Amino acid sequence: MTLGMSLGVALVGLEGHLVTIDVDIADGLPGYTLLGLPDTALTESRDRVRSALVNCLQNWPNRKVTVSLSPAWLPKSGPNFDLPIAIALLAAQQSIPSEHTVDTLFLGELALDGRIRAVRGVLPSLIAAYKAGITTAVVPQANYLEAQLMSEMTIIPMTNLNELLHWLKTGQRDEVQGLDVVIDIGDELFDFSDLAGQQRARTAAEVSAVGGHHLLLIGPPGAGKTMIAQRFPGILPPLSRNESLEVTAIHSIAGGFSVRSPLSSSAPFIAPHHTATRVAMVGGGSHHIRPGACSLAHRGVLFIDEAPECGVGVLDSLRQPLESGSITIARSVGSIAYPAQFLLILAANPCPCGKFSGRGRNCTCSSQQVRRYLSKLSGPLMDRIDLRVEVEALSRVEMMQPELGEGSSTIRARVIAARAVASARFRFDPWSLNSEIPSRALRTSYQPERAAMNFLHNELDQEHISARGLHKVMRTAWSVADLAGHLIPSVEDTKIAYSLREGIGL
Amino acid sequence: MATKHDPEKTNTSIGLFGERVIAQFLRSNGAKILDRNWRIKDGEIDIVARHDSGTIAFVEVKTRSSLAFGHPLESISSEKSQRLQRLALGWLAAHHCLGVDYQIDCAAVLLGKPGEHTIEYRANVL
């Protein structure tokens, strides 16, 4: 028989498709044809596979080799087909028994000397294979940690082709010490106790973490806006296993530039610079559609410092993912949806020079500049932000205090408890966070107590607040109540929520 | 005074040796050699033979003394194979037998130690 087959996975966004690699070695002039819509990196696999095989003392067939990747209509990309192509070739030459090659997934890029190199998107590939009924996978050693998250499958890490061939021929391999899959809680480098004073901002961060409310911090340079944002993941509840898998899958697709450990259960914190383009923010690319910052921040925090300095339309491109929790990117190669449920934290100076706060004595900006600066944050975007707080410059009293502020772990414990209350309340509802309560439910089943509603309706009558703003305050009030241990938001809770929305009159 | 080249070592003689070997091989397989080294402006056909099935085979022979530069048949590019097609039709036209069954075969002769060689014969490759 001069036919061989093996299995690989083609990724389209986060979704993987099982790909069958068939190799036929026919009589004829030496040649190599690769079928099935390969991209450049995949077409180049021919030379990598050939060198790797020859350098591992395997025979390269000097005949007409046809490699077919099916389904043929699916565009395939990337070097992760090197390994399955090599295996199918060897199976076609009867160099290895075919028992393993038909039900094992192979992933890996080949170096010219036969080493197996790390590839992107291992976790989503494994998930796709598992859904298709494959239970064994050979992965590059360098991707072992990530692959082990898929604990339902037998994962075989390999460092080079010779080692793999030895296993395929004899069934023997060096027993790899199974790394313990300990979801690493993440020893947070940043702790809230570092932050002096700033009680209002602390409250806002805590409320925001409880209800998943987006947050805008406005204050002069050096007041601690960035400090607060950086410490935010430390007070979010740790990710569940499934959430952690989702996050790792996205980061895996994005490639190896992420410092995040694949096993980390701490919420991701993504802080793109304000010069980021729209594509960097939401994802894109012409050949290979990559996730952008808002997808990398899925289940975590997207922090944009100096938000008014962002390019035109960059912030507004976040409106749709903020609304739907996912982003669909359409390009000529196809359209791909990435999840993007993130908590948005914006930080801004009050004016271009940054000093227009307090009495604003040192501010050198004209009044028009001051007005124009924050209005760069568009109305529709601001509508989606529940909490706006001013972070004042620290006073000497606050700076003089010798004792540290409350630590992240204490705050996190309260956040977890409050979220538990909320999810118990929403157990029959399709949402789980206070910020997700739909308006209709707010008007029927999730109203604060009567006195609180009277207070809000008075504010509405005096046009201090819009109808939409009223709903935002009600949602925030639920988070405040959950923290305070109230069954239903009281007048006090509602007033706190109202004060956290005010800040600068936007 | 320069010593004379060993005739067995020149490329031309290696090529001619390979063609002889293949002609011998074809004959021993029941084929009849119709023509050798048929040459026109466009190029040359090494061997024209009639297989016992009646099909006319145009044979391109590649001979190498080592594998250092790859497999002999790898050197047949797509351009070269198109030329073989043209030459085959040219031969048929010149001999007034256009329309008969024909095929293009490629043969590789790999020289080993003196007196030893291996043959690879690929029938109907284009």
Structure in words:
- The complex is a heterodimer of chains A (506) and B (126).
- With 506 residues, chain A is an alpha/beta fold.
- Chain A folds into 3 domains: 3-170, Ribosomal Protein S5, domain 2 (2-Layer Sandwich), CATH 3.30.230.10; 192-410, Rossmann fold (3-Layer(aba) Sandwich); 437-506, Helicase, Ruva Protein, domain 3.
- In chain A, 36% of the residues lie in helices and 17% in strands.
- In chain A, the strands form 6 sheets. A 5-stranded parallel β-sheet of chain A has the order 11-14-17-10-18. In chain A, strands 1-2-4-3 form a 4-stranded mixed β-sheet. A 3-stranded parallel β-sheet of chain A has the order 5-8-9, with helices on both faces.
- Chain A starts with a strand and ends with a helix.
- The mean pLDDT of chain A is 88.
- Chain B is an alpha+beta fold and 126 residues long.
- Chain B has a single domain, classed as Trna Endonuclease, Chain: A, domain 1 (3-Layer(aba) Sandwich).
- Chain B has helices spanning 11-28, 78-94; strands at residues 32-40, 43-50, 56-64, 102-111, 117-122.
- The longest helix of chain B is centred in the N-terminal third of the chain and has 18 residues, at 11-28.
- The model of chain B is unreliable at 1-5 (pLDDT under 50).
- Chain B: It holds the Pfam family UPF0102.
- Chain B: InterPro entries: Restrct_endonuc-II-like (IPR011335), tRNA_endonuc-like_dom_sf (IPR011856), UPF0102_YraN-like (IPR003509).
- Chain B: One of its GO terms (molecular function) is nucleic acid binding.
